[in-house]
């Protein structure tokens, strides 16, 4: 597990360096075949437009955006939790866009981000989390962290290079009493 990585919660997306780092990370993941809502090739401009579209939700506290950065400040990973849900689901949140740069994979960074996002969601009063993935390695991570498979939807989305893929839906009950150590 990487120990020189720091997890930060972004309160806004106004910092150009943050936007550039998140955009580069997203482009790297899409170039590597991650099914995260984008098709190849993903330009820097399209990636920045995506991140800018989230700025209002981050600033309003409707979305928690966590980043994992090395000592130099390079963003090697990110994950989000969508707190804003319908009024009959105030206890639930959705985890989205767990991204780890290809050069930082297989070092425990995804696990660090998932633990941090669960803690952040719990501190926001959430007790039920859901997510979906089309990645076998992400599925193994989620299962190892206690997430439960709800089901698999065939032909759910297109892979970034084309071709349909299935997605696996997961859920996890968490304690709303948990508090993050430093998020």
From TrEMBL:
Coiled-coil annotation: which residues?
none
Q: Please give the superkingdom of this protein's source.
A: Bacteria
Segments traversing the membrane: none
- Which first-to-last residue range defines the signal peptide? none
The N-acetyltransferase domain covers which part of the protein? 5-175
Query: What InterPro entries would the database entry show?
Result: Acyl_CoA_acyltransferase (IPR016181), Bact_Acetyltransf (IPR050832), GNAT_dom (IPR000182)
Alphabetized, the UniProt keywords read: Acyltransferase, Transferase
Record's keyword annotation contains Acyltransferase: yes
Query: Does Acyltransferase show up as a keyword for this record?
Result: yes
Instruction: List the PANTHER family.
Output: ACETYLTRANSFERASE, AMINOALKYLPHOSPHONATE N-ACETYLTRANSFERASE-RELATED-RELATED
Q: Under which name does UniProt file this protein?
A: Acetyltransferase family protein
Which source organism?
Answer: Collimonas pratensis
């Amino acid at each position: 597990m990487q120990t020189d990585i720091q997890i930060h919660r972004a309160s806004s997306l106004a910092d150009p360096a943050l936007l550039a780092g998140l955009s580069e990370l997203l482009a790297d993941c899409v170039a590597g075949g991650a099914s995260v809502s984008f098709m190849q090739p993903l330009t820097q401009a399209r990636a920045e437009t995506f991140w800018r579209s989230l700025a209002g939700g981050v600033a309003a506290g409707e979305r928690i955006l966590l980043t994992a950065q090395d000592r130099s400040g390079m963003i090697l990973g990110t994950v989000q939790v969508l707190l804003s849900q319908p009024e009959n689901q105030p206890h639930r949140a959705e985890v989205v866009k767990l991204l780890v740069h290809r050069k930082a994979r297989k070092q425990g960074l995804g696990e660090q981000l998932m633990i941090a996002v669960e803690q952040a969601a719990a501190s926001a009063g959430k007790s039920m989390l859901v997510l979906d993935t089309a990645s076998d390695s992400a599925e193994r991570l989620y299962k190892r962290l206690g997430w439960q498979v709800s089901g698999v939807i065939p032909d759910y989305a297109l892979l970034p290079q084309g071709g349909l893929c299935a997605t696996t839906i997961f859920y996890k009950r968490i304690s709303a009493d948990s508090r993050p150590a430093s998020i």
